[in-house]
Amino acid sequence: MIRARRARIVATLGPASRGVEKIRELALAGADVFRVNFSHGSHQDHARTIEDVRKVEALVGRPIAVLADLQGPKLRLGEFLDGRVRLKAGHHLRLDLKSTPGDASRIGVPHPEIFAALRTGAAVLLDDGKVRLRVIKHGPDFADTVVEAGEMLSDHKGLNLPDIAIPIPALTDKDRADLNFALKQGVDWVALSFVQRASDMAELRSLVQGRANVLAKIEKPSALEALDEILDLSQAIMVARGDLGVELAPEEVPVVQKQLVRAARLRGIPVIVATQMLESMIHAPTPTRAEASDVAGAVYEGADALMLSAESAAGDYPVEAVSIMNRIITRVEQDPRWPELMRAEYPVDDADADALVAAARKAADAASTACLVAFTTTGQTALRLARERPLQPTLALTPSIQTARKMTLAWGVEPRVVPEPDDIEDLVHVAVEQASLGELAQPGQRILILAGLPMGSPGSANILRIAHMPTRR
Questions:
Q1: Do 450 and 356 form a contact (C-beta atoms < 8 A)?
Q2: Which of 142, 260, 370, 449 is 20 to 30 A from 243, comparing alpha carbons?
Q3: Residue 233: which domain range?
Q4: Which of 3, 6, 8, 35 is catalytic?
C-alpha cells in the first residue's frame, strides 16, 4: 500500500476509533501514524490499542508507527463548592494553595511553583483563555487577581501563564510511569508535552535510552526562546497550537507555525502541525472551508505531517476526517505551483555530509527518474533525503521493523523491511524488485539508489547508483 502523497497523517486513537476493524479503516483512509494520548485512558486500554495497531500493520502490509503522547505538567484549578462559579469583569478572585473547595472569592491551585514564578501585573489564563485574570498582589502561597474577561469557571479547568517560565519538571510521576509502560509496549515515538527548555528533552532522552524516538511538543512561548537547543535534542517536533494558541495572541500563532516548520526543515527532522485542523468534523461530516485551507496551508509550508486529535479520537466521523485530510493533501500536491511554494524557503546545501544526498535530489529532477531508494539502518539516510524534499517518492529499505516504523512520520518516505543486501549487485537487485512491487517505477525508467558501505554500518551514505528498470520481453 503506497501513498499517493508526501505529507503524512497522524490520527489520535480514542473511544471513537478503538478495535482492529476501525483502526484498519483509518489506516486504509490514510493514517500513517497512530497517537496514543496518555492524558486519557488506562494502561490496560492503551496496551489493547497498541496491540490492535500491530495487528492492523500486518493486515495492511505497511509499517505503522505508534506515538505515545505524555500528558506533562498540565496546570489545573481545584474544585468549587458548587462545581462552578459565575464571574464578571472587575471581580476579585484569590488563588491559593488550600485544598478546600472554592467559591466566587477564592479557588485552590495545587501548584506552589506557580506562586514562586508569579509577578505583579502578570496575566493568568483559565479554561483555554476563556477567563483572563490579572495579578494585583501575590505571595509564596497566594495571588490576588482581578477578572479582566470571562464569566463562567468550573472545576479542574486548565491554567496558563503566558511569558512566564514555570520552574516545574517536564516529567511528572505519572509521566514517568506512563513512559516506562509505553517503552515496554514497544512504542516508536514518545512526545513530551509543555517543553520549556532543552534540559526537559535531555531528561526524556536519558530515560528513553534509544528505545524510541523523542518528539518535543512546542506549546509554551518560553520554548521558542530555547528553540535551537531543544531542536538539538529532539528527533521531531510538534507545533501544538492548542496551548500555544492560548498563551500567544491569535495573530502570532501562524507566524510561529511558519517559524517552527522552517526550523525543523532546516534541521532535517520531521515536524507535525497539530490541533483544530478539522475540529468541526468532531460533529459534522465535512470540514469548514477555513479548516480545509488550514490543512492546505501546512502542506504548502512543507510540514512532514498533520495531526487529527478529537476528530479521530472522540468524534462522530473519525474515518471521514482522515479521508478528507488525505484528499486535501493529495489535491494540494497536485497543484503545479506546490513545489515552488513548498521550496520557497528551501534550505541551502550547507553541510558536506549532505552533498551526496543533495546530488541525488538534483539528479532526481530528471524526467526519467521514477523514485529514489535509500538503504538505511537507522533511518538517517532517508531523513536526509526527506529534508531535500524530492518530488519523487523515497523508498526507504531497512532490515529493521523498528526503523521502518519510525520513518513513517517523514515527508515522502515509503519504508519497507527487507533483508540486508549481501553486496552491491544484490543491493541493486533488491532496489529494483521493491520499486517494481510498489509500482513506483515502470519498465525503462530509472531509479536512484543511495546506500553506504560497508553494508549494515550506520553512518553517512557514500554510494549513489543509477539503475534502470528492466523492460518487459
A1: yes
A2: 142
A3: 8-73+170-336
A4: 35
Distance CA 421, CA 452 (A): 11
Contact 73, 194 (CB under 8 A): yes
Taking CA atoms, 320 is separated from 32, 215, 282, 352, 403, in Å, by: 15, 27, 10, 45, 29
> C-alpha cell of 118?
508569579
First to last CA, the chain: 27
Q: What's the pLDDT tens digit per position in 80-100?
A: 999 999 999 999 999 999 999
Q: Work out whether the CA dihedral 377, 193, 228, 296 comes out positive or negative.
A: positive
Q: Mark which of 303, 336, 369 sits at the end of a domain.
A: 336
In b/e form, how buried is each residue of 218-234, taking b as 16+ CB within 10 angstroms? bbbbbbbebbeebbebb
Q: Is 217 tagged catalytic?
A: yes
Kindly state whether residues 366 and 289 are assigned to the same domain: no
User: Is residue 275 annotated as a catalytic residue, yes or no?
Assistant: yes
Of 76, 84, 86, 362, which is the active-site residue? 76
Per-residue confidence (pLDDT) for residue 352, from 0 to 100: 45
- The answer, yes or no, to whether the previous bond of 270 is cis (omega within 30 of 0) is no
**Which residue numbers in the chain have pLDDT < 50?**
352-353
Please indicate, yes or no, whether residues 311 and 357 belong to a single structural domain of this protein: no
Q: Does pTM top 0.90 for this prediction?
A: yes
Q: Assess if residue 420 is contained within a domain.
A: yes
Side chain identity at residue 368, one-letter code: S
The reply to whether 17 falls in a domain is: yes
Closest CA to 57 of 106, 23, 88, 102: 23
Q: Say whether both 313 and 259 belong to one domain.
A: yes
